[in-house]
Structure formats: C-alpha cells, structure tokens
Recover the amino acids of this structure.
C-alpha cells in the first residue's frame, strides 16, 4: 500500500526522485553533504559536487540553515533508503523540529544516563541543609532554655507601678546587673552557706545611650546607706521601709526590692535586669581563653582562693573570680577599691571579646553565650536568645573607649566609716545626666585630681566681672573611672 511505502521510506515521495530509487553505489556520504531539502545525509538524491549550489540551496536562506547543516553533518556510512528507521532518522521539513518516534527513546535514555549525578547532588545538598538547620535549631533551643525567667519581680513591680519613675529618654536602655552572692549549690566553696540566703555582691546600673554610641556602667557600693522601701519577701511578708546599707535590699526582697531601691535613689527607670551568679562569670572568662592583667605585687588570699605572682599574666575563670572578689589582701582593703578593680576587669573582658572577634564569630560566640545564659536570671524582656542577641548586637559597634565604668560618687558615712554615703551634688548631677541620656566622661583618679586643681586655680585667678560676657557651653561632667580601652597593665 502507498501508506506503507511512504512510512518506510521516511519522507514523502518526490516526483523527481520516487521513493525506493535512491542510488545504492555510494558507500559513504561526503562530510557536509545535503539532500535536496537542505537536510544532512537523508539518503535522497545524489550529493552536489563541491562548489556547486543545489536548487534547494538557492530557494532557502543560506545563513543559519547552511551553518546548521555543516555542524550536524553525519559521519556514518549511508544506509539504503528502504532501510526503515535508519533511513528516516534525519527526515522531516527543515526548521520544524519534528522527529520520528525512533528518536524519542534514544534521546530519553541518553538523558537518563547522563543526569543521575545531578539528582544525587541535589539530594545530598538537601540533606546537608536539613542537618544544618536541625543542628542550628537544637543549639538555639538549648541556649534559649538555659535562661531563667524572673516572673515574680515583674509581678511585684506592677503592684508598685505608681511609685516608679517615668522614662525620659524613650530609646535609651537602663539595665540593672546584679551579681548574686548566694553561697548555696555550686557556690558553696566560695564561702559559708547560711541557708541559701543571697546578697548583691555587685550591682551595676548599665546605661545604653539612645544612639548606641556609648555605654556607661555605674557601680553602686554594697555598703552605701540608702532608703530601702517596703518590699515583699519570698514568704509573702512585707518589710518595713528603712534606712540601711544597699545590699540588704536584695537579701530582704530580692530583685524587685533592689530595683525599687535603685529607682528611688537615682530617679532612673529600670527597663530590664539580669542576675548573674559566680559560676557564670567564671565560665565566660574561660570561654574567651582568659583575660590578661598585671600585678605590681603577688597575691595570696585564702578567702578568695587566690594565689598569683607579680607581673603580667592571663587569668582563667577561677583565678578571675578570685581577683574581682578579693578585698582584704589587695590595696587598702576597701570595697571601693574592689569595685574599681571589678570595673577594670570587666572592661578588659569586653575589650577581649571585641578585639578577638568573638561577637562576629559564631563558633567562638557560642561558648560565651552558653556560659552566660546558664547563669542568667532575667525579666521577660530579655529571657530569650533573640532578645539577648539584639542587645549584644546593639552594643557591638560601641567604641571601647566609650564603654565607661565608674562608681557613684561616694565618701565614708559620717556616722560609720565602714559604710558609704553619696557625695552631693556630684551624685545627683550624674543621675540627671543618665536620666536625660546626656553624656558623661571618665578619667583616671589622679588625672581627675589634677583637673580639679586646675579648675580651682582658674576660678581664683578669674576677675569678678569675667562672667559678664557670653556664657560658655556647659562642660561634660567628668568622673573618676575607666574605659574598656584601658590596658590593665598600664594602671
């Protein structure tokens, strides 16, 4: 039948070249030869002599089709036109993209043979992504679960909300850092356990400027005489209002009582709080591979469990804890000098974290966060890893010379020299600057004394009418203190 002849020949019968009359004497086609339709090597018609164009060539665009024909010219031996599938493999009108059914399984199987590695690579990449995401989520939840939330403080502060100061600088942050002196649990080895009672061994008011270009940490002496308001105790009893030393507020009413005492003393609204125990501080120092200090004299303090030689050295966590807690065997033995030592050491710790890229290196930041979160008890506004990360990130770009440490201006209490009292009006001026988010400056104590002498001399030499001209800008209040940029070995 005609249909069978056409199908087996591969191309419709041509009047000039009937199907089945293809010459058989040619054993191999010339490279680049084309049939009358411009198709490469279909087997219909004879090859055109070199240099001569065929009629079909003249009737088609000689650009792309010629190039395509040369690129795809078959190099195999020619097959008889009546050979079925082989003869029809290249047939079809030029440019239509039509293929015979014989081409489909050949192309499909080749594709399947060439691409299995792509599927395996995709599966491997997906597996790695899932593992990484799972590990990251596990680490996040672990750190997040380390933090203890203090809900009781928030409840009590809500009861006394009407007594609390109103925030002045809305974008600034005031965080109260409390170092717990509890001797229960893992802290027994650092002193007598008197039933698990806790005292605020160290209390620091950390002020973060609204523009996050400075941070000021003000230590409040534990022996400072202050007004402690009525507070609710752990067994739901209410204490009386009393004038007593500052650290008793934590022992009587915990964190909420300490916050209310600081707010009454300074007029500054406390936004957040953190309570850190001994072991947390020790582990953080170990996580940054220690902090370097210099000692003018050797230390042998059995109470602080500390024995160190003189000179430059790097303290591990246990040694650092003894160093910041030592009191009787260092300097004049005062709590004020111990606070200054704590401030300088904290500054060195901050500097170590920034200079070593800890805050920008996840592998080094994780141990620090793990140590910190295990020892932290915070309010609900800082009780997640995301909250802490946002806080750390906001401080990351603060220059170390603008991370300042100072002690609230104090002097020996007139009725008991073993206690402290505020120096006025210096203390009130400091609290006003922080409350209104205005700058303060710190310099070493000896430099401050020199400035005070120069200021007094200038006032003595100034004529009585010298103040009649235009007023000079108000100078930034300056206090005795240090910054994170200071080198402990140059103190």
């Amino acid at each position: 039948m005609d249909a069978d002849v056409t199908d087996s020949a591969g191309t419709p019968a041509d009047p000039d070249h009937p199907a089945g009359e293809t010459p058989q004497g040619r054993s191999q086609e010339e490279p680049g030869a084309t049939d009358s339709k411009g198709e490469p090597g279909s087997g219909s018609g004879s090859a055109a002599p070199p240099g001569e164009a065929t009629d079909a060539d003249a009737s088609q665009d000689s650009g792309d089709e010629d190039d395509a024909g040369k690129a795809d010219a078959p190099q195999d031996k020619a097959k008889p036109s009546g050979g079925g599938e082989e003869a029809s493999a290249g047939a079809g009108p030029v440019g239509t993209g039509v293929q015979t059914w014989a081409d489909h399984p050949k192309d499909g199987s080749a594709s399947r043979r060439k691409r299995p590695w792509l599927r395996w690579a995709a599966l491997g990449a997906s597996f790695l992504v899932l593992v990484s995401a799972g590990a990251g989520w596990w680490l996040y939840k672990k750190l997040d679960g380390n933090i203890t939330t203090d809900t009781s403080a928030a409840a009590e502060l809500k009861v006394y909300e009407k007594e609390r100061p109103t925030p002045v600088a809305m974008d600034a942050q005031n965080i109260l850092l409390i170092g717990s002196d509890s001797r229960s649990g893992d802290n027994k080895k650092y002193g007598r356990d008197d039933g698990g009672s806790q005292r605020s061994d160290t209390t620091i008011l950390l002020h973060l400027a609204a523009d996050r270009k400075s941070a000021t940490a003000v230590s409040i002496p534990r022996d400072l005489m202050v007004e402690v308001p009525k507070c609710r105790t752990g067994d739901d009893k209410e204490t009386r209002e009393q004038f007593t030393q500052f650290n008793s507020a934590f022992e009587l009413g915990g964190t909420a009582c300490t916050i209310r005492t600081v707010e009454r003393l300074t007029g500054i609204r406390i936004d957040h709080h953190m309570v850190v125990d001994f072991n947390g501080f020790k582990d953080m120092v170990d996580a940054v591979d220690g902090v370097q200090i210099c000692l003018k004299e050797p230390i042998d303090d059995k109470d602080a469990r500390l024995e160190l030689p003189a000179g430059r050295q790097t303290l591990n966590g246990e040694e650092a804890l003894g160093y910041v807690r030592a009191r009787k065997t260092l300097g004049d033995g005062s709590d004020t000098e111990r606070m200054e030592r704590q401030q300088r050491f904290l500054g060195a710790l901050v500097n170590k974290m920034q200079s070593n890229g800890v805050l920008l290196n996840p592998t080094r930041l994780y141990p620090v966060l793990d140590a910190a979160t295990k020892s932290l008890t915070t309010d609900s506004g800082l009780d997640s890893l995301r909250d802490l990360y946002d806080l750390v990130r906001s401080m990351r770009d603060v220059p170390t010379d603008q991370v300042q440490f100072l002690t609230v201006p104090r002097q020996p209490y007139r009725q008991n020299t073993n206690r402290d009292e505020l120096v006025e009006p210096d203390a009130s001026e400091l609290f006003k600057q922080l409350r209104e988010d205005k700058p303060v400056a710190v310099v070493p104590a000896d430099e401050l004394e020199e400035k005070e002498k120069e200021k007094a001399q200038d006032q003595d030499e100034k004529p009585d009418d010298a103040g009649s001209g235009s007023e000079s800008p108000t100078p930034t209040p300056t206090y005795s203190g240090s910054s994170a940029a200071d080198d402990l070995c140059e103190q």
The chain has a mean pLDDT of 74. The first helix runs from residue 2 to 9. The two ends are 110 Å apart (CA to CA).
